[in-house]
Structure formats: C-alpha cells, structure tokens
Design brief:
Blueprint lengths: L23 E8 H6 L2 H18 L4 H8 L6 E6 L2 H13 L4 E6 L4 E7 L2 E2 H8 L3 E2 L2
Parallel strand pairs: 1-2
Antiparallel strand pairs: 1-4, 1-5, 2-6, 3-4
Length: about 140
C-alpha cells in the first residue's frame, strides 16, 4: 500500500495480538438531558469532541491503533447518561477500574457533557456500561 506524502504509516505491527478478533469498540456516553434540550448539531459535536479526545489521548495504545486501522469498519456505540450526575458517576467508576477514558467539559460553562472510552474489546468494558441505553 502506498500512502500519500505526509501521511503516517499504518500501525499494523503495533496491534495487540487478537485485537481484531476481540471486537474493538469505542463507547461514547452523552448526557441525554442535553441531547434533548440542545440543538442536534451541538449535541453531536460534544460526542465528536469526546471521541476524538479519547483517541488522541490514547493514540499510542495498540488497541487504539488497531481500531483506527479498521477504517470504515470501526465500531462506535453511543449511549445515554440521564444527566451530569450519572455521567460523573460513570467517570468515577471507570477511573476506579483503570479504564482509559476522557470526559469532555464544555467551556466556558465548565459543564461535563460527554465521555468517551478509548477503543476496547467489548468484553473488557461492557460490564461498566450495561446500565446505559443506546442514545435515541
């Protein structure tokens, strides 16, 4: 495969053994109260910011590299936290279990709007997210 000038080489050699078979997924958890009260574009932007921040912060992790190499086959699941308290509680739980994630805080309001995990095999993190429903 020949890449255009200025593009980084793929990270194929850095992929965690069996990462593709493990079903890598990036979970994004958006506050449902904001999703229903903010303009759609603003809510979607919060999820995008959180997802990109998580991928950027953990860009050296083999699972993140393997996930990005999937291109159009990347799997992202967007869940809903009812409110800021639920989002903050989830962030604390993830921290206690050493699960890599990023909380997106909207500025200048200093309001936590969304969080995203770095890509993980689903079976490693699903137990912490199973109480949250798909965002609708």
């Amino acid at each position: 495969m020949r890449l255009p000038a200025g593009c980084a080489a793929p990270y194929g050699s850095m992929a965690a053994p069996g990462a593709a078979a493990a079903g890598l997924v990036q979970y994004v958890v958006l506050r449902g109260d904001l999703a229903r009260s903010w303009p759609l574009g603003a809510a979607v932007a919060q999820a995008c910011h959180a997802a990109l921040a998580a991928v950027h912060a953990h860009r050296q992790h083999p699972d993140t590299s393997a996930y990005l190499e999937q291109g159009g086959a990347m799997r992202t699941v967007v869940l809903e936290a009812p409110d800021e308290a639920a989002l903050t509680s989830l962030a604390e739980t993830l921290k206690q279990h050493s699960i890599d994630h990023q909380v997106w805080t909207e500025q200048p309001e200093n309001v936590a709007t969304c969080l995203a995990l770095r890509p993980y095999p689903k079976d490693q993190v699903h137990q912490h997210l199973k109480k949250f429903k798909l965002l609708k």
